[in-house]
Amino acid sequence: MPSGEYLRYVALGDSQTEGLGDGDDTVGLRGFADRLAEHLAAVDPGLRYANLAVRGRLASQVRTEQLGPALALRPDLATVVAGVNDLLRPRFNAAEVAGHLEEMFAALTAAGAHVVTLTFPDVGRIAPLARPVRSRVFDLNARIRAAASRHGVTVAETGRQAVATDPRLWTADRLHASPLGHERIAAAIAQAVHLPGSDDAWTLPLPPQAVPGRWQAAGAELRWAAAFLGPWLGRRLRGQSSGDGRTAKRPQLLPLSAAPDSPADTAQRESA
Hints:
About 45% of the residues lie in helices and about 10% in strands. The protein is built from 10 helices and 8 strands. The protein starts with 7 loop residues before the first strand and ends with a helix.
């Protein structure tokens, strides 16, 4: 399909695609997929958009739960972003995770969709305590690029840009992009698919800011571990996920101006 002529966009993935870090469950989540849909609708107001992502999902769950519904929607553009939740698991297997992604790449491209995916930034630069999993990120990124090449999938190389590890692009939990981070991801994808009006401005560094001293940085790490890492590990030990009981926020293709049900509306309908 020629650049810019996308009328049916479907997003598959986990919390990043759902939009965590950009809004909340009360006012609604925006996120890079919503922002990309806005870019697409500016080119063609006839765009319809569905977002099947659910927070906490592993790559295997994205494939088993979202691929079938995505194919049924017959997208001409699809984003597939998953694997970070796998990276943080003790028994991470890069080949297995990449295999699930490749199955989605293959099925969606065979159905005629232009598929786009991302690479992930160096987590050790975002959260120093996460440095032990840096090699996992680099391994998975390499496998994503190889799988994408085999199926004609476009890769937005967010993982290779220094700005991607700027703390201002991340929320306090360091796992989810901030509104500015989601904005940059959407702009990266827009450029990768050559949308009219897109450019490489998303790669530009932010204005300099003061660098914290060693003791300030150490204190920040301890506060982050107590506020976010500890609770996350606790959920893993209890076998819980942040996505338990949740469903996709936008399961049907809708015009961008047509908002899906709010969480309160959904809860009310399901309890009736």
